[in-house]
Structures are given as structure tokens and as C-alpha cells.
């Protein structure tokens, strides 16, 4: 058994010795029964928060008002929460008040799905009043109690239900699914951040394609709180891609989101707007946007030439990736090439076939992709040309970088300074 579980059992035993009940609860019980690795262990106890604080040498008051104390053991930490009941719910969101109770079954009753409403004692015995074990075996996501009521209490549960179904390859139980479709409009009351966190986990999880299909089928995306003209519904335009489980073939959050926007025929700017409305983390949104911009740019380059008329020669793979590297940086082009491979494989994008096949190798032959790597800098150029800095300087550096990246010139100080001088002379003539 893992050290985390051993330490968790120590916490349970310590509470038991002091005369309280204590059990593992929720996700860790579910994942343990499924034989999946545990992310963390949540503990529920009849002890009050102040008792927990008293019993352990190292604790942190994580959410005292909600009954949660973090117990810090040697290698892991554990959230220990007093058995509680969530009496009143406010506006289809989290509960207004919590009430500490002494009965575990009551605590399990407030949990969302039967597979999440099980507990386990230190000896491994299961406490399962709602048939979670059975649903786990059958592969079913089912609300604890009346699904209509449970989704009215907290509308986020609808998204969680879809996420669990996708993560574990489960079906949503009929009544749960009906209630979900029926109550989809209640999602309007849920904070965008919570919604987006769930979407992230779906798209980055095991079955992003099924997640999107279920989202569309449920009607939930029409009811996000932010009035996004959310393009998810357009997924229906790409049914073939869904069947071939397209998104699952991309790894990494940014690639998956970029892939999704592509399947929905969203332009980079539209995608950026949608991500802003959905309150994506800036870093993630930037990464997705950059990939989509690179996608538009690289694709227009790749089929820039017209080989039939021979008016313009088709750019070589090397040229395309070198120019892309100057424009977006090598790491972005490298990542985009994976998107290009996916486009070829999933969407039969023949125009990208050669680029996708040879691009990664050619990209490594590009000697420089950043002005900082250039053998000359701004001071060198203002000195050599005896001109005060101005907009010309950035332009010139960019031109020299392009020449060096394309290997038309070596990245050598003297060569680049000479080039700069002859360009300056040409301009004054
Ligand atoms: P994972 O962490 O893998 O997403 P989890 O089951 O641990 O799964 P958490 O969000 O960490 O999910 O919540 C821990 C437990 O708290 C859940 O197993 C569930 O019993 C309960 N829970 C969480 N969110 C809700 C909710 N919105 N409504 C009811 N119960 C909830
Ligand atoms: Mg958890």
C-alpha cells in the first residue's frame, strides 16, 4: 500500500483512539475500488474542527467555517472534514450554511453521485448506503436521491456528472440524464470560473470527444452564465471527427483546446473572445490563441504557391518552418506541427502533408529564431550605422533575423554588420 494510504490510516486511527469516528470518503474511495491511482485522500470525521486541531501536532485551518482542517503528516497532507449537512442552498449554488452532525450516512447523503458517496474505515470496510459499489460495477453515474432536486441545489453537479461519465467510461443513469437535460438552464446561476474548471478537466481528460458530444446533447453550453456566443454547438459540424475520437489524439491542454476550436471552425480571434468570456487563465488562453494564429499563418504559407500555374514557387518546408519560427518562436511551431499532423490524419488536410511529415526535422535546421540569439544587437547596429535608435532598428533586426533563420546569411557578427551597412547604403541611394 502506498505511503499516502498508510499515513491516512494513521490519521483515522488517531481520531478513533480519541473516541471519534473517522473514515476515508468520496473520490479516494471510488478510485481505490476502481484500482486507480489516488490524487489525494479526504477524511470525514465525527470530531469537531477544534478537536482535530487539538489531536494533531501540525494542522492548518483550511476551511474552519465549513469544518475542514488540513492535517499535515510526514509526507502527505489530509483534509479532515467534520460530518456535515448542507441545509439550505442558495440560488442553485453552493449551500448557504453548513451544520455539523454526528451521523456519517447523513454526510454521505449530501454528496452528488452514488459513486462519490461511499466511505471506508481503516480496515478497508465500505460504508455504502446508496449503492455506490453496485453503480461502480455497472458503470453508472447516478445522483444520490432525487436528481431533479440535487441539480436544483447545485447546478454545477450537471457538469460534474458528465465529467465523471467521461473520465470512467460510465453511462449517466436515465433519471439523472433526464433531470440534467431538464435543468440545463440552471447553469446560468453558476460562476463562470467553476464551469470553466470543469470544462478544462473534461477536455484534458480521458474522453474529450465524448465530453463534447454529451455537452452538446445536454444543451448545457447554451446556458453558461457568460453570454458567450459559445461555438460548442458547432461541434455537430464535425461528426466524423467525433467518431474517430479526434481530440483524444492530441496531448496537452493547449493543443486540445486549439483542436476543439478548429473543429468548430472558430477563427483565432473568435476563440480568444470565447476564452475571455469563459475566464480562461491568461496563460492558457494565450497558448491556445498563439497556436490558432500559427495555424492560420502556417496554413496560408503552406499553400501560398500555385503549382499549377507556376506563378509562384511553392515554398520549401524549410522556408515555411523558418519563417514560422521567426514569427512565433520555435516552440510554438514545434507544437503546431503536431496539430498539423493531426489535421492531416484526422481531417485529411492534404495541403499540410509534406509540412507535417518533414517539418519537425527541418525546424531543427533553423539556426536562430529569436533576435536575442542574433550575433548583433541594437547597440552594434546604431554604432555601425552611426544613427540614433528608431523604428528602423527593430525592422532591421527583424530582417537580419529572417535572413539568418533562412540561412541566407550566417549568424556571424561581421557578416551581419556588413549586410546592415549595405542595406543602409541602398536605402539612401
Ligand atoms: P476528483 O477529485 O477526481 O475530481 P472527487 O470525487 O474527489 O473527484 P472533489 O471535487 O474533490 O471530487 O470532491 C470530493 C467529494 O466531495 C466528492 O467525491 C463528493 O462526494 C463531494 N462533492 C464535491 N463537489 C460536490 C458537489 N458539487 N455536490 C455534492 N457533493 C460534492
Ligand atoms: Mg478530489
Automatic annotation (TrEMBL):
Keywords: Magnesium, Metal-binding, Nucleotide-binding, Nucleotidyltransferase, RNA-binding, Transferase, tRNA processing. GO terms for biological process: tRNA processing. InterPro entries: Bact_CCA-adding_enz_type3_sf, CCA-adding_enz_C, NT_sf, PolA_pol_head_dom, PolyA_RNA-bd. Its cofactor is Mg(2+). GO terms for molecular function: metal ion binding; nucleotide binding; nucleotidyltransferase activity; tRNA binding. The keyword Glycosyltransferase does not apply. SUPFAM superfamilies: Nucleotidyltransferase, Poly A polymerase C-terminal region-like. Residues 24-142 form the Poly A polymerase head domain. The keyword Iron-sulfur does not apply. Residues 169-224 form the tRNA nucleotidyltransferase/poly(A) polymerase RNA and SrmB- binding domain. Residues 363-419 form the CCA-adding enzyme C-terminal domain. Belongs to the tRNA nucleotidyltransferase/poly(A) polymerase family. This is CCA tRNA nucleotidyltransferase. It comes from Paenibacillus flagellatus.
Amino acid at each position: 500500500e502506498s505511503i499516502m494510504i498508510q499515513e491516512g490510516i494513521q490519521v483515522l486511527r488517531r481520531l478513533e483512539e480519541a473516541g471519534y469516528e473517522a473514515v476515508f470518503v468520496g473520490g479516494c474511495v471510488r478510485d481505490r475500488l476502481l484500482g486507480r491511482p489516488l490524487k489525494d485522500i479526504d477524511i470525514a470525521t465525527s470530531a469537531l474542527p477544534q478537536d482535530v486541531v487539538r489531536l494533531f501536532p501540525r494542522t492548518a485551518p483550511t476551511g474552519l467555517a465549513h469544518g475542514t482542517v488540513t492535517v499535515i503528516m510526514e509526507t502527505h497532507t489530509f483534509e479532515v472534514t467534520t460530518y456535515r449537512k448542507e441545509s439550505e442552498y442558495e440560488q442553485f449554488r453552493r449551500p448557504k450554511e453548513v451544520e455539523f452532525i454526528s451521523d456519517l450516512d447523513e454526510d454521505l447523503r449530501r454528496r452528488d453521485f452514488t459513486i462519490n458517496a461511499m466511505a471506508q474505515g481503516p480496515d478497508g470496510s465500505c460504508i455504502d448506503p446508496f449503492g455506490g459499489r453496485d453503480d461502480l460495477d455497472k458503470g453508472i453515474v447516478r445522483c444520490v436521491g432525487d436528481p431533479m432536486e440535487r441539480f436544483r441545489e447545485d447546478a454545477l453537479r450537471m457538469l460534474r456528472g458528465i465529467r465523471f461519465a467521461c473520465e470512467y467510461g460510465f453511462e449517466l443513469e436515465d433519471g439523472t440524464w433526464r433531470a440534467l437535460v431538464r435543468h440545463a438552464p440552471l447553469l446560468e446561476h453558476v460562476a463562470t470560473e467553476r464551469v470553466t474548471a470543469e470544462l478544462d478537466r473534461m477536455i484534458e481528460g480521458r474522453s474529450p470527444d465524448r465530453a463534447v458530444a454529451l455537452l452538446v446533447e445536454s444543451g448545457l453550453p447554451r446556458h453558461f452564465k457568460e453570454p458567450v456566443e459559445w461555438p460548442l454547438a458547432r461541434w455537430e459540424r464535425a461528426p466524423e471527427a467525433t467518431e474517430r475520437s479526434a481530440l483524444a489524439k492530441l496531448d496537452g491542454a493547449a493543443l486540445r483546446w486549439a483542436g476543439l476550436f478548429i473543429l468548430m471552425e472558430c477563427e483565432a480571434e473568435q476563440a480568444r473572445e470565447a476564452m475571455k468570456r469563459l475566464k480562461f487563465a491568461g496563460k492558457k488562453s494565450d497558448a491556445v490563441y498563439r497556436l490558432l494564429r500559427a495555424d492560420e499563418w502556417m496554413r496560408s504559407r503552406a499553400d501560398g504557391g500555385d503549382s499549377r500555374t507556376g506563378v509562384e514557387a511553392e515554398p520549401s518546408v524549410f522556408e515555411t518552418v523558418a519563417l514560422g519560427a521567426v514569427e512565433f518562436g520555435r516552440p510554438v511551431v514545434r507544437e503546431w506541427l503536431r496539430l498539423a499532423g493531426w489535421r492531416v490524419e484526422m481531417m485529411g488536410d492534404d495541403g499540410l502533408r509534406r509540412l507535417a511529415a518533414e517539418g519537425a526535422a527541418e525546424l531543427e535546421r533553423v539556426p536562430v529564431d529569436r533576435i536575442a540569439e542574433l550575433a548583433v544587437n541594437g547597440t552594434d547596429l546604431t554604432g555601425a550605422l552611426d544613427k540614433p535608435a528608431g523604428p528602423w532598428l527593430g525592422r532591421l533586426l527583424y530582417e537580419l533575423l529572417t535572413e539568418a533563420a533562412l540561412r541566407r546569411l550566417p549568424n556571424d557578427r561581421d557578416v551581419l554588420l556588413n549586410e546592415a551597412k549595405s542595406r543602409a547604403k541602398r536605402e539612401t541611394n
